[in-house]
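Exercise 7b. Backbone tokens:
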């Protein structure tokens, strides 16, 4: 199983960093200790806007699951009727699956990596783990008794096309 590393986005340097790189106050300001010490000041989106957008996006990212391979894992979810996948514990690009097109996977334009999107995806990612919606690839493919909802079963098509994605990762 993948490690449970928790991270946070720093608006100063633009990196996703583990929690210990943030101090208590820095955390809320989305500035890591280093950037905070360097005196960077970031104008913050009004909290109510952020919260509203967070809530809205959070509601439309659905049917999440995590699939583990021997050396890697993928986070899959549905957003506005499309299926998305992101690898490397959310460190890869966000890819949208287009099964009817030749390349199958495309770097998402609708959902691009930014603070809000990543905050939502991290939340969903940890919820998915907490809810045990994590599966080993082998079980998904070979074990007919593995319990998985109909909606999530649709992700199997994405999983079985993964070789198209390898070149990107
Ligand atoms: Zn920073």
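Sequence design result:
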């Amino acid at each position: 199983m993948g490690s449970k590393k928790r991270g946070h986005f720093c608006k100063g340097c633009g990196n996703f960093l583990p929690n210990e790189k943030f101090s208590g106050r820095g955390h809320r300001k989305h500035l890591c200790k280093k950037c905070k010490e360097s005196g960077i000041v970031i104008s913050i989106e009004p909290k109510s806007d952020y919260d509203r957008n967070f809530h809205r996006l959070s509601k439309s990212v659905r049917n999440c699951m995590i699939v583990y391979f021997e050396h890697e894992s993928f986070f899959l979810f549905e957003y506005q009727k499309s299926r998305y996948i992101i690898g490397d514990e959310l460190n890869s690009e966000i890819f949208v699956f287009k099964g009817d097109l030749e390349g199958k996977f495309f770097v998402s334009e609708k959902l691009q990596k930014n603070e809000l999107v990543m905050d939502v995806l991290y939340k969903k990612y940890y919820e998915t783990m907490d809810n045990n919606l994590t599966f080993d690839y082998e079980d998904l493919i070979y074990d007919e008794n593995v319990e998985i909802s109909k909606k999530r079963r649709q992700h199997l098509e994405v999983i079985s096309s993964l070789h198209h994605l390898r070149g990107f990762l």
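Instructor comment: Residues 60-168 form one domain. The chain has a mean pLDDT of 86.
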